[in-house]
Design a protein that fits this description.
Its EC number is 3.1.2.2. The protein is mainly β. It is built from 2 helices and 6 strands; from the N terminus they run ββαββββα. Bound molecules: decanoyl-CoA (MFK). The site of decanoyl-CoA has 16 residues, from helix 1, strand 3 and strand 6.
């Protein structure tokens, strides 16, 4: 798939944490009100990410009517959010909390409402606090991708990063 995302030189391989989610198991939620994965979010993608071997994962998302952009197809921003969620979850296999620094999406085919989108994702490697990932999406045939993505995630200190915003957090009612 065509992309203009350029990986830097010097990326080093990373190692799965010994206590990471086992292959075939669902990777823990960010939190239950997360737009990407939370079961309690008022509006959300409700994506479940399953750990694969090594630093890989898979996920699925149902394309619901509220996700419409062009007539009959998913909005590009929704798909972008889905890639962000999938790729942002995989670093949990390293047991390192991250936020997105840079996200790049390649849209190859329109995705119809009512589809099930299947995602594959892997961590490419890292440089210091920078973790590089790639992902692709298909509608049932992995040899026919409909979109792809790359992202740079930055490892954060979880408490410090959100310290100024926690009083705004919403909780399940
Ligand atoms: C785990 C908890 C639950 C999280 C839910 C995850 C949901 C899915 C993921 C998301 O959607 S997260 C939400 C969207 N992202 C953000 O809100 C992040 C907002 N940005 C920031 O908070 C800061 O810019 C950031 C923490 C990413 C970086 O700030 P820092 O001050 O910690 O680090 P710095 O700016 O020094 O950058 C660290 C390295 O990354 C590089 N970098 C940062 N942003 C970059 C960028 N956009 N492109 C390329 N490189 C970038 C930067 O050049 C530097 O490289 P070097 O180490 O080589 O000097």
């Amino acid at each position: 798939m065509k992309t203009s995302f350029v990986l830097p030189t010097g990326i080093e391989p990373l190692t799965r944490h010994p206590n990471a989610t086992r292959p075939g198991q669902k990777i823990d939620l960010h939190h239950s009100m997360c737009y990407g994965c939370g079961a309690d979010a008022e509006v959300g993608l409700r994506i479940a990410v399953t750990a694969g071997e090594g630093l890989t994962a898979t996920a699925t998302m149902q394309v619901e009517n509220w996700m419409q952009g062009g007539p009959g197809v998913i909005h590009g921003g929704v798909l972008s959010g889905a890639f962000d969620e999938v790729m942002g979850t995989v670093p949990l296999l390293l047991r390192r909390p991250v936020v997105t620094g840079h996200l790049a999406i390649d849209y190859a085919k329109p995705i119809p409402l009512g589809s099930t989108v299947h995602f594959g994702c892997e961590i490419i490697g890292g440089i210091g606090r920078k973790i590089y990932t790639r992902s692709y999406a298909h509608l049932g045939d992995p040899d026919a991708p409909v979109a792809g993505a790359h992202a740079l995630f930055i490892v954060i200190d979880l408490e410090q990063h959100f310290a100024d915003y926690r009083d705004k957090a919403v909780h399940p009612s």
